[in-house]
Design brief:
The chain is α+β, with helices and mostly antiparallel strands. The chain is about 45% helix and about 10% strand. The chain has helices at about 1-5, 10-25, 50-55, and strands at about 35-40, 40-45. Strand 1 and strand 2 (about 40-45) form a beta hairpin. Pfam families: NRDD (PF13597).
Length: about 70
């Protein structure tokens, strides 16, 4: 089969998937600093008090639609 030549057998693919899953478990990311603009200043969210942080992470983005009238 053409697919087997290109991707390997099902058993080989399952083994590769398990290897990649183990690799993902041991991967650590880099901490990312999030900034938000408040009253004209860009400030890192990390420095905010717990209540404001919680409020920030629960915000919902929306886009206003343009009226045809």
């Amino acid at each position: 089969m053409i697919a087997e030549k290109k991707y390997g057998t099902k058993k080989e693919l399952e083994l590769r998937i398990k290897e990649l899953e183990k690799e993902i478990e041991n991967t650590e990311g880099t901490k990312c600093e999030v900034y938000s603009r408040i009253v004209g200043y860009h400030r890192p969210v990390e420095n905010w008090n717990d209540g404001k942080k919680d409020e920030f992470y629960h915000r919902q983005d929306y886009k206003e639609s343009v009226s045809d009238t």
